[in-house]
Design goal:
This protein is an alpha/beta fold. It is built from twelve helices and twelve strands. The protein has helices spanning 18-26, 60-67, 85-95, 112-117, 119-134, 151-157, 183-195, 197-200, 214-225, 236-248, 254-264, 290-300; strands at residues 7-11, 32-38, 51-54, 72-75, 99-101, 141-146, 161-162, 167-171, 178-180, 203-206, 210-212, 230-234. The strands form three sheets. A seven-stranded parallel sheet has the order 3-2-1-4-5-6-10, with helices on both faces. The protein has a three-stranded mixed sheet with strand order 7-8-12. Strands 9-11 form a two-stranded antiparallel sheet. Helix 1 links the parallel strand 1 and strand 2 (32-38). The radius of gyration is 20 Å and the shape is globular. The N and C termini lie far apart (48 Å). Keywords: NADP, Oxidoreductase. This is NmrA-like domain-containing protein. Residues 6-234 form the NmrA-like domain. It comes from Aspergillus hiratsukae.
């Protein structure tokens, strides 16, 4: 058995997900966590956690020096910078890093129907995992996480729920089920996967906090707010058509609509637990209350 993973560095720790991953590792005495951040970044980090600065183009020489003696690299960089992970992976291999977690978090990028609709969100991520597979012969192991939407962000961002106005936009009847995961649970999942790399390496891990429908969320929101919400029902296919027309004209406002569509409509990978092995138990993830999470969200709105 190989020695345990101890030294972990998080790339992109200033985004939505990164702080939760850093926090999970920081809270576990098995790990020593540090952060890789670009020189131009204005993000601030906990003062007790070491921060390594690198040029914005992720210069390989700098990266190799920083990655030397690190056991694992966890990457959470933004979607528009996904392609930069190849340089980070190359440096990790040269530095002798043992494990890499790519910025794969979100929908199942292997779903062909969804990939055809939003290639800018799917193709680049899938290519990175394929690149990692090619590095297995160099001794670099990897783990990719399929989490569904980041629940707290997606609820009011693109899943159709306006907490301030108490208004829900429901696709079709709103009864199709799909998976989503909270940010803290994703952080815990990544950390726990590094505790047992012998069982989590070189594979996709599918996790979820909730397997729900839009109607489930609406019912819970009405419960925690104590109010009857206004609801607008939209035809999913018509929404998709209009959103694709907008994208074809360079109007990016169609993207959130398509994200809602591929999450909530059958066949686009949103309900991945129907065909994949659930890794929640493997990663010792806690059960979560939909109402409790939504109650916290509504308090912050």
């Amino acid at each position: 058995m190989s020695s345990p993973i101890k030294k972990v560095i998080v790339v992109g720790a200033g985004g939505h997900l990164g702080p939760h991953i850093v926090s999970a590792f920081d809270a576990d005495h098995h790990f020593a966590v540090s952060i890789l951040s670009r020189h131009s970044s204005k993000c601030t980090f906990p003062s007790h956690i070491p921060v390594h600065r690198v040029m914005d183009n992720y210069d390989e020489t700098e990266l190799v020096k920083i990655f030397t003696r690190q056991d694992a690299v966890i990457c959470t960089i933004a979607t528009q910078a996904i392609h930069l992970q190849k340089a980070i992976i190359n440096a990790a291999v040269k530095a002798g890093v043992r494990h890499f977690v790519p910025s794969e978090f979100g929908h199942d990028t292997r779903n062909e129907q969804a990939a055809q609709m939003l290639p800018q969100f799917f193709a680049a991520k899938r290519q990175i995992v394929e690149y990692l597979e090619s590095k297995e012969r160099d001794g670099l192991k990897w783990t990719a996480f399929v989490t569904g939407p980041f629940f707290e962000i997606a609820v009011s961002n693109f899943l159709g729920f306006d907490v301030e106005r108490r208004h829900a936009t429901i696709l079709d009847r709103g009864t199709n089920r799909w998976s989503a995961t909270t940010l803290s649970t994703i952080g815990l999942a990544v950390k726990n996967a590094m505790l047992h790399p012998e069982t989590t390496s070189n594979k996709y891990l599918f996790i979820e906090s909730f397997n729900v429908s839009q109607r489930d969320i609406l019912a819970s929101l009405e419960d925690v707010t104590g109010a009857k919400w206004d609801v607008t029902y939209h035809d999913g296919e018509e929404e998709k058509r209009l959103a694709l027309e907008k994208l074809a004209k360079g109007n990016c406002s169609g993207i959130p609509v398509l994200m809602r569509y591929i999450t909530c409509v059958k066949g686009y990978g949103g309900n991945y637990m129907g065909s994949e092995e659930n890794a929640n138990k493997l990663l010792s993830l806690p059960g979560e209350s939909l109402c409790e999470v939504l109650a916290r969200l509504t308090k912050h709105e």
